[in-house]
Amino acid sequence: GTATKKFAAFQNDTTYLIIDGTIFSRDKKHLLMFITTSFPSSATSKNTGLVRQLDRVIQKIGNESNNRVNIEYFGSAAVAVGNAERLKRDIALTLSITIILLTLIIAFSVRKKALFPFIFLPAVVGGVVALAVIYLIQAKISIISLSIGTVILAITVDYALHITTHFKHKHSIITTIKDVSFPIIVCGFATAFEFISLVFVSSESLHELGILAAISVITASFFTMVVLPHILDITRSPGDETEEKNALERVLDRITRYDFHRNKLLILFMVILTVVTVLFARRVGFESDMMKMNY
Predict the structure, then answer these.
(1) Running DSSP on this structure, what letter comes out for residue 111?
(2) How far apart are CA 147 and CA 140, in angstroms?
(3) Phi, psi of 57, rounded to the nearest 5 degrees
(4) Rounded Cα gap, residues 221 and 227, in angstroms
(5) SS3 for 130?
(6) Do 181 and 225 form a contact (C-beta atoms < 8 A)?
(7) 10 Å Cβ neighbour count for 48?
(8) pLDDT tens by residue, 154-183
(9) pTM listed for this prediction
(10) Is the separation of the CB atoms in 176 and 167 below 8 Å?
(11) Partner residues linked to 16 by β-bridges
């Protein structure tokens, strides 16, 4: 084949040896084979089947030879599939950790357990709407774009948690909406504009990421202000008005009441820390070896 013809030029090389059109290492202990995939290396969903079949064949040959035959493969398609599989596992892990941590924070902030699923509702609705829009635009999405899910979840849950805790102390839907509607909507638009700026970069994956994040945040912020107040009003009970602050809120109240600007030692420490960080920040460089960015 084409690869054999190219290696024929290295017949006198000290590394390779060609025997009857087959490429061996010079000591004849290693056999080299080349596979041309039907799909480009970027088509990870289609190349995954090939890589899994290769793994099954390698395991079968190893078992039949009592592990005396060692087979290894390498290539851009295999690397892309490996990266995609690792990203899927990492996304599932980080998303699980994020949900656990958010649940702990919500448990300390909101005693009414009936509100727990509703606090996650804006994030769910925002994600579903964003995925629907992505489908209508291009009918597909990269795994890298989905990796932003943990960040979006944390941002959108914060909107719901903010209005829920505010309502717990105000006990009035109208007052709560007047107090938090402006900051939540403005924060939603500001965050969306930050993500949508990724559309102007050259990476297609970052385009999807920016659109997905922007739509999720905007949808979640409006859902929080339009739908969540009705849920809070429906689930309200007479005992809510006598609910005392929990331990976390009392600790945060003590911290926020402290006059940090009057602590000269703290101000001096912050100045020194700022100078040190500025000096070290200038030494940060970019990774030039692309292989180190693979899993």
Answers:
(1) -
(2) 15
(3) -65, -40
(4) 10
(5) helix
(6) yes
(7) 16
(8) 888 888 888 888 887 777 888 888 888 898
(9) 0.71
(10) yes
(11) 25
